[in-house]
Amino acid sequence: MNHLVVPESSRRVSLVKPSAIRRMIELSAGMEDVIHLEQGEPDFVTPKHIIDAAVEAAKKGFTHYTEMDGTLELRQAIAEKVGRRNGLDADPRTEVTVTSGSQEAMLIAAFGFLNLGDEALILDPYYPAYFEDTLLAEAVPIPVLLSEKRDFGLDVEALENQITKRTKMIWMCNPSNPTGHVFSRQDLETIAEVAKQHDLIVFADEVYEEIVYDGIEHISIGSLPSMKERTITVNSFSKAYAMTGWRIGYIVAEKKLSASLRKMHYYATLCPNAISQKAAFAALNGPQDCVQEMVAEYDRRRRYMLSELDKVKGLPCATPKGAFYVFPDFSRFEKSDETLAQHLLKEARVATAPGSGFGKAGEGHLRISYSVSYERLKEGIERIKNALE
Ligand SMILES: Cc1ncc(COP(=O)(O)O)c(C=O)c1O
């Protein structure tokens, strides 16, 4: 018997591809003096009062499994927050589930609601996990191209044209990664009407809700009339509180939807990290000026980026109203965003994320993250401009 024969992976694993961002990270590994503008990772350290709460919890021995759906204390704090901030009415006992980051929520939603051959609409450009998780569930991802002319807002016809008898779900990100678009009330109402008419589930990823600019209002689609019973609202502590490494997020969904998600959640994780739950509780209950300070700094960088990109001829860039990315269209310089990203990495030592990794509507674009220090950003944009010349 040959013990070196490695067993084949499952068919579903062979369906998914590694992320374009991972590829850039791998390509840049070992290269010196690279400015990393490809990652969606806040450069701030988690605020001190949050870290202190976690350290204290660990020292007191809060180091065991917790309730599988998260501690009731944290679920109550989340229910209170989503009621006040998002207009979502949620019972902390049955309608709030604490997850290991929002990434877990995507996988359990795909497995929890999609059957073989079901179709899931994805507002495109999209966060890549929606597409790959749909494939993992052996369902069919159907991109719905957003309108670049409307700063990547909704194209109603494009949405309606893709509905079939097999459509089960809509994946959306608001504010959007990668475009920074924040959906208007009118667009959300249109999506909600389509969902109700065709009996669809809406997966609403709101992890960037706190990071919005120019006084724009972020609206949760789950708060619109009759949307509670069909919306899976997902959020996270990663972006708002610079807590990516703590792996803590949550789902708010009506009782029956939550019951299905919780079944999957249990077998995936048993329970979320105990210490991170104490940190998350401190984040919600503590002072919020740390969030405002981080957002003000992102905004300063956003303005700088937009003004610098504006100086480059033939480089259209939608104005992002949320998140921490710009998504300019470089197709006049180079048709293939992959080629351009590799060129910038090699020649300018700047890592960016190729837009086609975020869907068809992202082709020809690069996602440039401004979640690095102002100085590094300045250096990065100078290098990009020189390389383009
Ligand atoms: C739109 C979006 N959703 C979800 C995630 C996953 O975040 P986490 O699992 O840390 O909550 C990310 C991470 O970059 C993201 O950009």
Question: Would you mind describing this structure in some detail?
Answer:
Helix content is 41%, strand content 13%. With 389 residues, the chain is an alpha/beta fold. The chain folds into 2 domains: 135 residues, Aspartate Aminotransferase, domain 1; 237 residues, Aspartate Aminotransferase, domain 2 (3-Layer(aba) Sandwich). Strands 2-8-7-6-5-3-4 form a 7-stranded mixed beta sheet, with helices on both faces. Strands 9-12-11 form a 3-stranded antiparallel beta sheet. Strands 1-10 form a two-stranded parallel sheet. α3 packs across α10 and α5 packs parallel to α6. It is globular and about 60 Å long. The structure holds pyridoxal-5'-phosphate. The site of pyridoxal-5'-phosphate (PLP) has 13 residues, from α5.
Give the topology.
Elements: H1 11-15, H2 20-28, E1 35-36, H3 48-59, H4 72-86, E2 96-99, H5 101-113, E3 119-124, H6 128-136, E4 140-145, H7 156-161, E5 167-173, H8 185-197, E6 201-205, E7 231-236, E8 249-252, H9 255-269, H10 274-285, H11 289-310, E9 325-326, H12 337-348, E10 350-351, E11 353-354, E12 366-369, H13 374-388
Parallel strand pairs: 1-10, 3-4, 3-5, 5-6, 6-7
Antiparallel strand pairs: 2-8, 7-8, 9-12, 11-12
Helix pairs in contact: 3-10, 4-10, 5-6, 5-9, 11-13
The structure holds pyridoxal-5'-phosphate (PLP).
Pyridoxal-5'-phosphate is lined by residues 40, 101-103, 127, 173, 177, 205, 207, 236, 238, 244, 249.
